Amino acid sequence: MLEVLDIAAVRRWSSLAVAGLSRHEQALNQLNVYPVPDGDTGTNLLLTLSAAEQAVGGALTDALSTGAVLRTMARGALLGARGNSGVISAQWLAGLADAVDGDGLAAALDAAAKSAYAAVARPVEGTILTVARAAAEAAHQGSDEPAAVRAAVLGARDALARTPEQLPVLAAAGVVDAGGQGLVLLLEALLEALTGEHDESEVDGAAAYVGEHGHDHGHAGHGHGSAALTYRGPAYEVQFLIDTGAAEIAELRGALDRLGDSLVIVGGAPTWRVHVHVDDAGAALEAGLAAGRPYQIQITHLTSATAEGAPRRPDPTARAVVVTAAGDGIEELLIAEGAVAIGGNPSTAEVLDAILATGAGRVAVLPTDSNLRAVCQAAAEEAFGEGVKVRVVPTRSPVQAMAALAVRDHSRRFEDDVIAMAEAAGACRSAEVTTASRDALTVAGRCRPGDVIALVEGEVNLIGDDLTTVCCGLLDRMLASGGELVTLLTGAQAPDGLVEAVTAHVATRWPFVEVHAYPGGQPHYPLLVGVE
């Protein structure tokens, strides 16, 4: 039995927490009826703690204190946080980390609970917050660290059992709070990491509940039955990361509090995680832009209806642009141009959510990868049934999307504007430089694993063994057929000095060509190129 929470125990805790949440993911989803009955609390907590585990696993811990490793864990959770419970859990971990090197685990659990409460604009009892506070209060009954955590687990379980008494929506559904149950699992994993005692709760996600008309709807196949528990809150969940100062965050908190509810802002200068439920996702993003540069934006269309039960309809006079983006820098550039950016490799549902979240009746969608065009087109067809006219502009690279956004003009008819964007994208020749992963016979010759290859419009055009040489050779070939403006987006793996070398080469060889370079942050491709 360990007497203190050391670095090895933190690593065990993160792994055990992920394992426990993975076992109970679906049951937690079925418990999820507050604040929105969207059935994703288990998934959100699992994704949040998985990001935390990854961060701890990658930390070099030899010279770090327990608090420093916990701060790494909390930072990973912050960057990977999903949903209301995930964001609050990340802040709970941050509070724990900041205090654990001081007066012991009981005091640290106190700090964690206070930190979680402070993150929420309007705390509600009967939630994960109540469970966190009860665990902290109970922990002081323990005579040593393991006993404190053991007492915290018992206190958390007791508080969880009472959550239906505090939130009528839980009582009506016959369930306990999903986020609170997730925190109980985290504390049980902490106890196991410290003592080796495996005493895990049974999570009953298939509890029967009574809907609005008093009928019993509960069985495992129907989850938490969100159809019966009518959600009448805001239409969209908006989440993003933002790098800014405390003063700007205070203004952002006030602006978002006026726009919606379920507002949670966690983190600390310079990086913050923002979560809010709003009817106007565009206004929430505008508030974010006023405070800094939001990135990793996630917009989810919540299953909702107005108080009268009528479906929400888009504004037929409003326009918006949705763009896919792989890379934080690319997201920032696209957002600065007024687009809604979806990171990563989105599904049809995620693209559809982003389209509907704009609230606009006319939406242009710009895929920045040819593999995403079919996904975007499927989302466009689904959006038509929601009363939104969507046009997918044929773009295959972020540089083409930037060219398309540069010519938007709302004074034109929507269809004419789409045509202008498509023409601008088509006039921008795109290329990317990457490393070959396997042997292949290309139009430029045979490439082998590790070779640097340059692709123009998706076709291998140049093969070499030095990144800078290939990049310069690529620009020479593209500019030989004309061009006045070059756009360079550097990737996450781009070495220092690459942009300077390429820019200097263009200035010498093509002195009348203008070069704009930006950090794109995209994976796999050290350099993306656009020539107009």
TrEMBL record:
InterPro entries linked: DegV_domain_contain (IPR050270), DhaL_dom (IPR004007), DhaL_dom_sf (IPR036117), FakA-like_C (IPR033470), FakA-like_M (IPR048394), YloV-like (IPR019986)
Domain of life: Bacteria
Domain annotation DhaL: ranges: 8-192
Database matches in SUPFAM superfamilies: DhaL-like
Signal peptide boundaries: none
UniProt name for this protein: DAK2 domain-containing protein
